[in-house]
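Quick entry, no commentary yet.
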Amino acid sequence: MDVSGYALHNAWQDCAEFSLLYAIASARGSLGQLRGHSPERLRLWSWALEQVNSPLHPNPKPPVAEAARVAEAAKVAEVARLEALATEASRLAAEAARLEVLAAEATRLATEAARLEALAAGAARLEALAAEATRLATEAARLEALATEAGRRAQEAATPTAQGAAEQPGPRSRARAPPRKAGLALAVLALALIVALIVALIAGRSTPTPS
């Protein structure tokens, strides 16, 4: 049937005009009346609408067995993924524990290094004291030599005769004075040796053993 004069121009315009007529009849509930005018065209148009509004190549629904197999495969894959995640979590936990042990060891080594540094500072101070003691011992030895030489010269000058020695007791008493200086020098030398021995012992203890 002809729809309108505009539809007579070509087949595309005829299709557009019938589409408008079909929409109006469908909205008004008068598709039965339209079927009475042109049943074959309405059938073809309804079939065309079904093709347009439905997938051109619908996927068939998988059978029940195939769906179960797919679901089982998905479950197995998920379990494997979770197991891999658990393994990775365990590895990370072990790595964290190892790093924590390393951090504790680093802290211990830092404390030990600070202690050794303090011991080294003490050893340096004792070494300076030992050097000072050695200098004092050298000075004492020099003074002791000078005192010995002075005593020897005083003894030579104060021994003219036996009578002169008996009449003049003063120089002899003065000649006996230098040995006191010699005893003081020996005491200073002994103190220097003791300090040097202490420094050697502390240095031996503070030296770290190779790991």
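second:
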Amino acid sequence: MSVTPSASTKASTPDPSLDPMHADAPGHADGPDPALHRTNTFSLLAVDDNASDLDILRRLVRRIPEWTVNLTTCTEAMDGLSLLEQRKIDVVLVDYRLGAINGIQLLEVIRRTGFEGAIIVLTGQGDERLAAEAMRAGAADYMPKSDLTVASLRRAVENALERNRLQLALIEHRRRLERANQDLQKKNQEIRSFYHTLSHELKTPLTAAREFVSILLDGLAGPLTEQQVEYLRYVKEGCDQMTVCLNDILDITRVETGRFSIQPIPQPVAALVHRTLAGFANRARNAGIDLEARIAPGLPDVLIDAHRITQVVGNLIDNGLKFTPAGGKVSVDVEPDAGAPGRVRVSVIDTGRGIASEHLEHIFERLYQVRDGSEQSRMGLGLGLFICREIVKLHGGELDVKSELGKGTSFTFDLPAAPVAPVTSNPQSEGTEKNHE
């Protein structure tokens, strides 16, 4: 094993006996780089089967006054690998030609050991192909020995050290980001699980409270005064509002966990719309708002999850009633989609206050709410339109909005028409009828 023991090498006065071809001799364009004039303390391993080249390298290192180097040299590739296992090395200078193994192969082996320092490949002649091969293998730099001078060595090693520091910092930063991302994902999952559990746990007592309020309002527990009836109606409305919020939370957790799904079957869309409007009739009448359905004749059945589309239409009607003043109108229009054959277009249109243009691109975002200071804008969790859009997407459509301040808002989406089963005759039945005749 031919190894030069490691020693701290502090540069001294330039050695006049140094080979001028490897020094800062006249004719070399390399000059001192002021930006690199700073103290550097590091360990360096040089692997080269040419002892003369190693001696020249040692003398070049001594001529760099800014360096305090723990320098180790060896002439065998396997000895170099052993030294890397035994010592902390910051920079490796490896000759391309090492006998049975070349410098690129040694570089690849070194990288596989987990070495994180800088590696510079040296060769007796310049070759762009070898340079590219070295860089692809993970070398920090590539230098022909004919270009090796004090200045070029200093520049190559310090640049390699700086590049390696930045790369290690980037790797560590990426690791921290990955750990932070894993922590966020875990916390996000815990929050989803908490919301889902909370919603389920609250729905049961809330449903019971609403049912007992309904029993009282129906007079089944005895007569009530008008004031008691009024107060109980407020309680029932509060229960209904809380139920909507809890259902939204349950739906959002299903969306985010990929468990939100639909079971579409053929349904008559007109009947669905009329049923949904019936649930809002009293509210519209009490608010002095005209609520109507305008349904084109001869519509085909649609292939939908009736519960989910009722949820969409109901949410859009609810928003229309919420933001439309007395004397206004909310209508549900259903017609064939002229721009998409085989689909039915549903629009919920109101003559309410409208939505400012800066809010339109955000209203389908989760938790986004248009705050205008009114009591209506403070209601809900800002999840309804996000969930509606997801439901429509599951049906292969898009939920769009158009609005103008002071004139109203229109939400539109399309649904797939149910395929019509072909009518086929039964030859056996026809033959039976003819025989009977």
